[in-house]
Amino acid sequence: MKREKKVGIETEAVLEEAGKLGLVLDGDQAGKLAAYLELLEKWNRLTNLVGPREWRAMFATLVVDSIHLAGFLEGLALPEAPRCLDLGAGAGLPGIPLRVLWERGEYHLVEVREKRITFLRLALGTLKLPGTFVFGGRAEDAAQKLGPADLVLSRAFMPWTELLPLARPMLAPGGRVAILANEPAPELPEAWRLEAEREYDVAGKSRYFWSVLPASSSM
Fold it and tell me: CA-CA distance, 196 to 181, in Å (whole number)?
């Protein structure tokens, strides 16, 4: 008996899932997200990259952050072609889906763990995302080798109280730190100020973006 060939994730299925959540994607974006989710689902069977096991759950609870984040970043006073450092990039969330929608400047996925570095490079080789690179090494070394960043991005990399002192020397003049969080922006130390904040819903729970700048930066 001939074995049926497994059908991959279809573009139309991703468009349908986005529509259920009130999100708008075009066919090219949905196709790239389908390819990424298929790769992530396959790798997740072999090594624990993310919690959800099935691609629809990955989309609804993880990729959705990236779609909202693209709009949030467009509202910030970033340079036309910013240099971005995504610290602790892990399985490429939010960075890889973000780059499907938001292609400005150069974006560096900073990751120190070898299995995740391998996955990130495979994903970028598959998707051919413009201006997107993997930096295999410590966050502390990234800015020294890549240059000062206009944006340092963090999702669950470390507590914000530790992140801000770490990120400060990485920033170019006027640069900022964007944090994906499960709570509203707290009262910041005097050395920092809140530039922008956005609340959005994921599976009935609130999530937040904060953009914070050194207090000495001009807006």
Answer: 13
The CATH number corresponding to 68-214 among 3.40.50.150, 3.40.50.720, 3.50.50.60, 3.40.50.300 equals 3.40.50.150
Which residues lie across from 205 on neighbouring strands? 202
Looking at residue 1, its pLDDT comes to 45
* CA 43 – CA 21 distance, rounded (Å): 26
Q: Distance (Å, rounded) from C-alpha 14 to C-alpha 38?
A: 11
Distance of CA 157 to the CA centre of its chain: 11
Q: Is the pLDDT of residue 3 over 80?
A: no
Task: List the domain boundaries for the chain.
Answer: 68-214
Q: What span, in angstroms and rounded, lies between the C-alpha atoms of 209 and 72?
A: 8
Contact 45, 16 (CB under 8 A): no
Phi, psi at 13, each rounded to 5°:
-65, -40
pLDDT in tens, 198-213: 999 998 999 999 999 9
pLDDT tens for 54-112 read: 999 999 999 999 999 999 999 999 999 999 999 999 999 999 999 999 999 999 999 99
Which residues does residue 196 pair with via DSSP β-bridges, in sequence order?
211
Q: Beta partners for 193?
A: 213
Nearest 5 degrees, angle CA 68-CA 185-CA 77? 55
